[in-house]
Every structure is written in C-alpha cells, then in structure tokens.
Write a structure and sequence with these properties.
By secondary structure, the chain is an alpha+beta fold. The protein folds into 4 domains: about 100 residues, no CATH class; about 80 residues, conserved putative lor/sdh protein from methanococcus maripaludis s2 fold; about 90 residues, Efflux pump adaptor protein, beta barrel domain (Elongation Factor Tu (Ef-tu), domain 3, Beta Barrel); about 140 residues, OB fold (Dihydrolipoamide Acetyltransferase, E2P) (Beta Barrel). Helices cover about 35% and strands about 30% of the residues. It has 7 helices and 25 strands. Strands 14-13-17-3-12-16-15 form a 7-stranded antiparallel β-sheet. Strands 2-18-23-22 form a 4-stranded antiparallel β-sheet, with no helix packed on it. A 4-stranded antiparallel β-sheet has the order 4-11-9-6, with no helix packed on it. β13 and β14 form a beta hairpin. The longest helix has about 50 residues. The radius of gyration is 52 Å and the shape is elongated. The two termini are about 45 Å apart. One of its GO terms (cellular component) is efflux pump complex.
Length: about 450
C-alpha cells in the first residue's frame, strides 16, 4: 500500500487504512441518519428522523400512515444506494491498489524468469587470419584393413557369439558350425590310419623274410622285388591315411569361426540355423585404428591435388575435421575412362580421425590446400546461415542479434573467407539457429 503524508500529531497508520476507516464511518453515519440517527461527530447520539418510531408516534403531523411510509421508503432508497456505491468504490480502490501491485510483481517475476531462460549464444570477434585457397570434393571413409570372414566348413550354424558393432580380439570365437559330420570323418580317417599301419607292419615283415630267403637262394629275385613293392604300397597308404586325418582335423577346426585380428564386427548376414557352406560370408570385420578418405577427382585436377601441402577431411554428419599432411595424400595411377576421374586416397592417422563417429562408409567432405596462405577476413563456417541463395550471419548490436547478408569466398577447413558484409572487430554469433530465437543473448567465448 502507499504511505500517505504525515505531520506531527497525525495518524501514524498507513494512509490507505485511514481512508478506508473514514469511508466506512461516513457510510455508517449516513445509513444511521436515514435510519433514525443524526450525523454528528461520530454519530454518538440519536435524533429524530423520518424512520424514528418515537417521532412518528408523538408528532401528530408525522403519524404513521400509508402515504408517510411510501414517502419514507422513497426517500431512503437513493441514500442507501449512494452509500453502497461509496463503500464499493472504496473497496474496489483498495483491491485495485493491491491488485496492481500484484500484477506489477508478477510482471517483474515473469521478466526475470524470461531473462534467466533466454537462449545464450556464443559469439566470436571477426578478425583476419592466414587463409589458404582450397578446393573440396565429396568422399567416403574406408577402413585400411577390412575383411569378409566366410565359412570354410559345411554344416548348420549352431551358435553365434557376436553381433554387429561388437569389438573382438584376434582368435576370439565368432560362431560355431555343426561339427558332427567332421567328427565322423575324422574317426573314419583315424580307423584307416590304423589299418594302414597294420598293413605296413606286415609288408615290412614279409619283405624282411623275402630278403633272407633270397640271400639263401630259396626264392628268386622276382619274389624279392614283389615283396619290396608291397612294402612301398603299404607305406604310401599309411601316408595317405595320415593326410586324411590332417584334413579331417582341419575341417573340424573350421567348424569354429575365429577372428583373424583385432577389430570391430560391422555386419552379420547369417542367423542360427542357416546352412554354412564353404565361401559363404558370415561376418564383416574392420580395424578401426586406421582409416582413409577416398574421393574421385576430375583428371584435370589430379596433378594439383597430388602436390597439395595439406588436406582436411570433414564429417558431414557432425562437422568434425581431421587434418593430414601431404605425405598422406596418394593418387591411384589408374583413371576411370567412363567418368574421367581418378581415385585419391587420404590416409588418416589415429589422432586425426578418432571417435565413435569416424566409421567406414560415412560421407565426408575432402578439401585440399592448393595455394600458399594469405591474410584474409575469415569467420567460422558454423556461423553462416543459408537461406536459399543468400548467406548471412547474426551480428551483435546494442538491441540484440541482427541478421546481415554477407558475400563469402573460398573455404579452408572450418574457416570461410568473407569478401563483404562484415568489418574487422565486429562480433558474430557462432550458432545462427539459437541467435534467431526471441530474446537470445550473447555469451562471450
């Protein structure tokens, strides 16, 4: 409530309370006057009025009558209505004073909350930097080492130990194929080996007896040669049986599919119960520690790109950038006659392309530095807002962010050359989407 003026001896209560009390007293005095009480100081004594029963009974002129009652009622209505209007006016004035203060307080709280929830946009100062002329093309990521692991044994797949996306170690079991047929083949070959060993032992004994008899002259040279030939046949059958056991053992080992080296499983095109046959792909595997970007460039640009001093590889999905030096840029000495392009490979070391987003098959933008760097007005590529054929940036002003059209030049990595529309030293929003929101505020980086 408002505090009224005060003076020595004046009421020290709030001014609104004093006014309300006076209004109520005035209303009561008027009501009592018309109801039989006089409007003296504080209405402390009665005086005859139109409604006083005592006056009406003692005054012969004002004795009760139908006409006097109607006249008295007619006189009371405007007075009562005026008193009620006065009281309602004071009440509404009091409520309005408190309500207005409440509305103003609510508006202040809403403004504070709006200020606290206003989007904060990081900004940067426009400046000059060494800017190199570069050209860019679309490309894809490839794994330097990748493999398709196929089945080497025939049988039903009984168990899969990994799924797509799993990391595996060299020698880790990936799948198991029904090994019953391979085990039976191994048992058969082992039996044949035992038979061949027995036959070989008999042939060796026969050959020894034949030699002894030949030396004593009891048999001819032809009989001795026949015993020697039988020995050689037995030895060959033993070697054949041993080779069969080796093949059966390898076939049994092939029923368990293992990882050839450390890597990540990228695809599993089979399910448990499928028939595995030799050569059928079971897993796709790649080594994530080393990637390369591959782009196909026009044959006319291959020579310039091969001599580039630096290259950048930017992921289209996240905007992450990996930088490599010229030694890692390789032009494949073979052109495609149909498209007139040549394959360019950019080897990405682990430090330049690390993270979960750098995986084979991702689309990238490959840029090559073709000329030496020069001073130019540059801004981060993330600060640009594209609307149709127009390009703009949000500039920080006293009244907030203002969208301004600019003309851009070449792009080098994550920096874009500004030809016109900005001045050195101006501050721009690094996130144009948030800067366009209502109430956005700058946040210095």
């Amino acid at each position: 409530m408002r505090a009224g003026p005060s003076s020595p001896g004046a009421d020290s209560r709030p001014w609104d309370a004093v006014l309300l009390r006076r209004g109520i007293l005035t209303f009561r005095c008027r009501l009592k006057y018309y109801g039989g009480y006089t409007e003296s100081a504080g209405c402390r004594h009665r005086s005859p009025g139109w409604n006083s029963q005592e006056t009406q009974m003692n005054d012969p002129i004002r004795k009760p009558s139908a006409a006097n009652a109607i006249a008295a009622a007619t006189c009371r209505r405007p007075a009562v209505a005026a008193a009620l209007a006065l009281l309602l006016g004071v009440a509404f004035w009091m409520v309005g004073s408190g309500g207005l203060a409440g509305v103003r307080s609510a508006e202040a709280r809403a403004a504070a909350e709006s200020l606290a929830q206003a989007p904060r946009v990081p900004v940067a100062t426009v400046g000059r930097d060494r800017f190199a002329q570069a050209e860019s093309w679309d490309g894809t990521l490839q794994a330097v080492r990748e493999a398709t692991i196929g089945a080497q044994a025939q049988g039903r797949i009984v168990k899969l130990h990994v799924q797509a996306g799993d990391k595996v170690k060299a020698g880790q079991t990936l799948a198991e194929i029904d090994a019953r047929e391979a085990a039976l083949a191994l048992s058969r070959d082992q039996a044949q080996l035992g038979e061949s060993q027995a036959t070989l032992a008999e042939a060796r004994a026969a050959h020894a007896r034949s030699r002894e008899l030949f030396e004593k002259g009891f048999i001819s040279k032809a009989a001795l040669d026949q015993a020697a030939a039988a020995l050689k046949v037995a030895e060959a059958r033993q070697r054949q049986a041993q080779a069969g056991i080796g093949l059966s053992s390898v076939a049994t080992d092939h029923t368990v599919v293992r990882a050839p080296w450390d890597g990540v499983v990228t695809a599993v095109p089979v399910q448990v119960g499928d028939l595995a046959t030799p050569g059928r792909p079971l897993f796709e595997l790649h080594a994530p520690d080393k990637l390369r970007a591959v782009a196909f460039l026009p044959n006319s640009r291959v020579a310039d790109v091969a001599a580039a001093s630096r290259a950048w590889v930017r992921l289209d999905a996240t905007g992450q950038v990996g930088q490599v030096e010229s030694a890692q840029i390789v032009a494949i000495p073979s052109a495609d006659p149909g498209s007139g392009t040549t394959e360019i490979r950019i080897e990405l070391p682990g430090g330049a392309a690390s993270g979960a987003d750098w995986v084979p098959g991702r689309h990238v933008r490959v840029a090559f530095e073709l000329k030496s760097a020069q001073q130019a007005l540059v801004v981060p590529a993330t600060s640009l807002l594209f609307r149709g054929e127009l390009v703009g940036v949000y500039v920080v002003t006293d009244s907030g962010f203002v969208l301004r059209a600019v003309r851009v030049g070449q792009r080098s990595g994550e920096s874009v050359e500004i030809l016109s529309g900005l001045r050195e030293g101006e501050r721009i929003a690094l996130d144009p989407v948030r800067a366009g929101l209502k109430g956005a505020m700058s946040e210095a980086r």
